[in-house]
Write a structure and sequence with these properties.
The structure holds two protein chains of two kinds. Chain A has nine helices and no strands. By secondary structure, chain A is an all-alpha fold. The chains are: A mainly alpha, B mainly alpha. Chains A and B meet through α2, α3, α6, α7 and α9 of A and α1, α3 and α4 of B.
Chain lengths: ~240, ~160
């Protein structure tokens, strides 16, 4: 597979770039993502989903408990604001609950949930405007996101954790929504390329292109943190 | 292999998804191209950095808020059920209305009452041998005990 060439900054002027991503897929919030005909593994949530579809609220609550932290973690990486992240995650579960009848099980429930979360987060970003893409965020933004009542009482380590996470999220916010979603789904949430393609509604090649470009951009933004040793720059051996 | 072809292969190599001839071709290219080796390192470092991002979980009340938020849906369903019950009971209501209409159907029109008929029982003829009990009320001087007795003992058969 080949990327189209494009002048890429910071690579010595040599053309070694990637293609622009195609237009983002537009589909209904609750629409089930399309997967390739290749069979996927048995959905571990299938039984609970079936129970929830039959009207068992406890089953749906179990699903909420199972995915609450992952979904809030994901939405916060996208929208950055902690309060708004929970609102987006909450709205995601509500939409999922109301759309359960339309979920046919052709994709995994997790994939479907991330699809709804992604579209809900995008809507939230659009509502907020393009503020999150402003590249001249001042240092005040850090204090805005780290008020005293938000710092846990766990001592310096907890505060350092918050600072690190906020610094990474601030770097992510410099990316466009498409690049941010792709790289967060891959590197933060651990979805594979097929799942990301299903969630975002674009081909796997486009997913790879977005992730490649996002990481290249983030390298510059995260350099200070890496240099200071605040975040590791090597993956554990696989 | 040119640098233009490297991008997706770098990603797959990073994820351990590169095999066979593609792996050999990429390795051969990386040995000769410092820029692409730098690209690989960039991809590795950023992926590791993002993977190390401290997770932010949901608050302790999150689940309760979600379940409370989906509850209004049940109220809406209850409303729907109310309407369903209304429709189900409509034929019953119609039947009862019909029965009521049949049971209290139109009667023969009575002849209009004359005023005289209404007051007839109250009229006391001048030559009446006996006075109705309430005639006492028209008399000027009647003892209270007498009036009380008349009220307490008055009956349709008193005359």
């Amino acid at each position: 597979m080949r990327f189209l060439t494009r002048q890429a900054a910071g690579v010595g002027g040599r053309q070694c770039g990637v293609a622009s991503a195609g237009p983002s897929a537009v589909f209904a919030v609750e629409a089930e993502p399309l997967l390739s005909p290749v069979r996927h593994q048995v959905d571990p949530d299938r039984a609970l989903v079936d129970e929830a579809k039959a009207g068992n609220r406890d089953a749906f609550e179990t699903l909420v408990r199972r995915y609450q932290h992952r979904l809030v973690n994901y939405t916060q990486a996208i929208v950055r604001d902690a309060g708004e992240a929970e609102d987006v995650a909450q709205e995601t579960f509500i939409r999922a609950y109301r759309s359960l009848g339309r979920f046919r099980g052709e994709s995994a429930f997790k994939t479907w949930l991330y699809t709804i979360a992604t579209n809900t987060a995008r809507t939230a970003l659009e509502r907020r405007g393009r503020r999150d893409r402003v590249g001249d965020q001042s240092l005040d933004d850090d204090t805005r996101n780290l008020t005293a009542d938000q710092v846990p009482a766990g001592g310096p380590d907890a505060e350092a954790t918050l600072v690190t996470r906020d610094a990474i999220d601030r770097a992510l916010s410099e990316l466009s929504a498409e690049l941010r979603v792709a790289v967060v789904l891959r590197d933060v949430e651990g979805l594979d390329y097929k799942e990301i393609a299903a969630v975002t509604g674009v081909p796997i090649g486009t997913v790879e292109s977005r992730i490649f470009r996002a990481r290249r951009r983030l390298r510059t933004l995260l350099q200070p943190l890496m240099s200071a040793g605040r975040i590791p720059s090597r993956r554990p051996a696989q | 292999m040119s640098c233009d072809d490297v991008g997706p292969l770098l990603l797959r190599r990073l994820d351990g998804r590169l095999e066979g001839s593609d792996w050999h071709r990429l390795e051969s290219h990386l040995q000769q191209c410092a820029d692409c080796r730098e690209q690989l390192e960039t991809q590795q470092e950023v992926a590791a950095a993002l993977a190390s991002r401290p997770s932010s979980g949901a608050s302790t009340a999150f689940v309760n808020r979600v379940m409370a938020a989906v509850e209004p849906d049940r109220s809406w369903l209850d409303v729907l059920n109310w309407r369903a019950w209304t429709f189900r009971l409509a034929p019953v209501a119609a039947a009862l209305t019909l029965v009521a209409a049949l049971g209290f159907g139109p009667t023969e029109a009575a002849e209009p009452l004359e005023f005289v008929d209404l007051v007839a029982e109250w009229v006391v003829e001048d030559d009446a041998e006996t006075l109705p009990p309430f005639a006492l009320f028209w008399e000027d001087e009647v003892a209270e005990e007498t009036l009380l007795e008349a009220v307490l003992t008055a009956s349709p058969d008193a005359q």
